Amino acid sequence: MILITGGAGYIGRHLVQACIDTGQSCAVVDDLSNGSHDSLPQDIPFFRACISDGTALRGILRSLQVKTVVHLAARTSVSESIEMPMKYYDTNVNGTRVVATACLVEGVSRLIYASTAAVYGVPATREVTEDSPTTPVSPYGRSKLAAEWILSGIAQAEQLRTISLRFFNVAGGQVLNETRTGHRAAPHLLAAVSRVAFGDQPYLEIFGDDYDTHDGTCIRDFIHVRDLCSAILLASKGGADNESRLNIGAGHGISVREIVSAAENQIGARLPCLIRPRRPGDVASIVANAQRLRTLGWRPQHSSLPDLIGLVRDLVGERDDNYSGQKFVQTNIRRPRVPFPWHNTPDSAASDP
Ligand SMILES: NC(=O)c1ccc[n+]([C@@H]2O[C@H](COP(=O)([O-])OP(=O)(O)OC[C@H]3O[C@@H](n4cnc5c(N)ncnc54)[C@H](O)[C@@H]3O)[C@@H](O)[C@H]2O)c1
Ligand SMILES: O=c1ccn([C@@H]2O[C@H](COP(=O)(O)OP(=O)(O)O[C@H]3O[C@H](CO)[C@H](O)[C@H](O)[C@H]3O)[C@@H](O)[C@H]2O)c(=O)[nH]1
User: Fold this and answer.
1) I need a surface site. Which of 4, 89, 266, 340 has the fewest CB within 10 A?
2) What is the pLDDT of residue 184?
3) What confidence score (pLDDT) does residue 307 get?
4) Which pLDDT score, from 0 to 100, does residue 182 have?
């Protein structure tokens, strides 16, 4: 039995589905601060609790005889962490300490921790390996790294095996109709592109086009959430027990502009875009060296650019209400608020279109 903290969130609900698909039993604990119980199958044991409540956690671990915990619950926005750092240290550092303590007391064998590429900060090399320096530039990244340190310290002293999986930019399978399903609109790039494509958001804000990259926009390593889940399941079955930290990325960099252009090609319409100032906490470029993960037999199956972008169009078909692909394109043709994405002037970018 695997207990997934934060299992009602974006990655969590995909992980629950991956468990079901592979016959792995699982349960979820989540305080629903940014998740939705409705997005989980009814027969998955669900406990509404905060990870900082050690008594509740211990009771859940004991009653289900949990042997593996996948710890996803966290505050996850880089920009929010700059505005509200204590919220991040409370949940991400103290919350992880409480989860680890409960695991130790209840005899859990393996704790798999959702860390992040944000622990590397501004990389000195094009690709980062697990041994690259960790110099996070946001409270989010610092809080996730501090939690990694707690876990590696425990692993050296106690029976609990811990591994930090450093997720790069997870994409795909976003919730549509976010407001209707009670999810907060995800700030991630691919989610925002999908919203603009569906007409749920009037335009895409591109945060900075003056970075030192080939097209001036930031470069990220996007990994499809299904590929991410297969890596988590590999670790949950002991396939990464010799590692203490692992990069989980596809291993290739894609710029914000490349994402937008690929989406435009897929849907046959322009995405209205506005160039905004750089977003605090963003780094110009970060790409995983995922060689260690590959050595364990993992390969990305869904994380190529066409696969990632294909989702935008595929989702149009999934949407059950008024959005056929035809209407979708018309929506964008009829309602462009910015005539040509890349040509807005600094003046026009200063105010909303
Ligand atoms: N999405 C990404 O691109 C990405 C990249 C790197 C790392 N990660 C990490 O993966 C994990 C999951 O991210 P996500 O994108 O699914 O985020 P999410 O916000 O969708 O999911 C997090 C879940 O944790 C729950 N939660 C938050 N605080 C809690 C608390 N105190 N007690 C119990 N539950 C709580 C929320 O309700 C939510 O359901 C996080 O640890 C995040 O740092 C995500
Ligand atoms: O509407 C948007 C959203 C994003 N971006 C840009 O797209 C890139 C990716 O931004 P995301 O918000 O999608 O992702 P981040 O790289 O900021 O962070 C994500 O990946 C990190 C790991 O690399 C963290 O773990 C974090 O939880 C997760 O949000 C950044 O350059 C950002 O400025 C835009 O231009 N417009």
Assistant:
1) 340
2) 57
3) 80
4) 46
Paired tokens of 245? 């930290």
Task: Tell me the domains of the chain and their CATH numbers.
Answer: 2-168+224-248 (3.40.50.720), 178-219+251-350 (3.90.25.10)
Q: Which of 10, 88, 140, 211 is catalytic?
A: 140
- Paired sense of beta strands 245-248 and 161-167, if any: parallel
- Residue pair 267/328 in contact by the 8 Å Cβ criterion: yes
Q: How far is CA 172 from the centre of its chain?
A: 10
Nearest CA to ligand 2 atom 14: 188
Closest residue by Cα to atom 35, ligand 2, is 206
Q: What are phi and psi of 343, to 5 degrees?
A: -105, 15
Give the residues across from 112 on adjacent strands: 70, 163
What the block records as the tokens of 35 is 């998740």
Q: List phi, psi (to 5°) of 116.
A: -150, 155
- 10 catalytic per annotation: no
Whole-number Å distance between alpha carbons of 222 and 327: 28
pLDDT at 59: 98
207 lines ligand 2 (CB under 6 A): yes
Of 247, 195, 196, the C-alpha closest to 223 is 247
Residue 165, beta-bridge partner list: 114, 246
Å from CA of 121 to ligand 1 middle: 19
In the chain, the amino acid numbered 259 is I
ipTM over 0.90: yes
What count of other Cβ atoms lies within 10 Å of the Cβ of residue 249? 30
Q: Are strands 68-71 and 110-116 parallel, antiparallel or unpaired?
A: parallel
**HEC per residue, 93-116:** HHHHHHHHHHHHHCCCCEEEEEEE
pLDDT along the chain (353 residues), means of 10: 96 95 97 93 97 98 97 94 96 98 96 97 95 96 98 87 96 58 68 84 95 97 95 96 94 95 86 94 94 95 82 50 37 33 32 33
